[in-house]
Amino acid sequence: MIEPMTNELGWMLDDVLKVPEARHAILLSADGMLRAHSAQIDQDNAERFAAGLAGLQSISRSTAEFCGTPDTPWRQTLIEFGHGFVFLIAAGEGTYLAVSTSEHVDMEAVTYRMHKLVDRLGQQLTSPARLDTGSPA
């Protein structure tokens, strides 16, 4: 049985949102499970975005050879929309941090805060692969 999410790290994600024009932050695992979310986004939407962003990260990694060799490590994906950006970075083994912003954000300030948060949290952000993915046989 999967434990309900407690959002224990949510308050730490709010720190990234101190950058003017930053909107939401979520922490997700490689398999699309929501680990934490900032206060400004509800859990249902955060879970939906976590699933989509996990897929986006996987697709980004699959294009590594386009930048050199197939084993080139993925570090960040940036998506631009008409009214904003989504920043997605590696936050530990099997864990990713995503932040959404308006189009007027200081991009350097957001990525700086994201990387500082990842550094500060360290091992708390490690999300090993789940071994039990089904019901007992």
Find the structural class using helix and strand composition: alpha+beta
**Helix proportion:** 25-40%
What is the radius of gyration?
15 Å
What is the number of beta strands?
Answer: 5
Strand sequence of the main sheet, in spatial order?
2-1-5-4-3
Sequence of secondary-structure elements: HEEHEEEH
N-C termini distance: 14 Å
Low-confidence segments: none
Largest sheet: 5 strands, antiparallel
Please work out how many helical segments DSSP would assign.
3
Name the overall outline. Answer: globular
Task: Provide the β-strand percentage band.
Answer: 25-35%
Q: Kindly report the average pLDDT value.
A: 87
Please sum up the structure shown:
By secondary structure, the protein is α+β, with helices and mostly antiparallel strands.
Structure description:
With 137 residues, the protein is α+β, with helices and mostly antiparallel strands. It is built from three helices and five strands, in the order H-E-E-H-E-E-E-H. The chain has helices at 10-13, 43-62, 107-121; strands spanning 22-29, 34-37, 76-81, 84-92, 95-102. The protein has a five-stranded antiparallel beta sheet, with helices on both faces. A hairpin with a 2-residue loop joins strand 3 and strand 4. The longest helix has 20 residues, at 43-62.
Give short descriptive properties of this protein.
137 residues; alpha+beta; five-stranded antiparallel beta sheet; 3 helices; 28% helix; globular
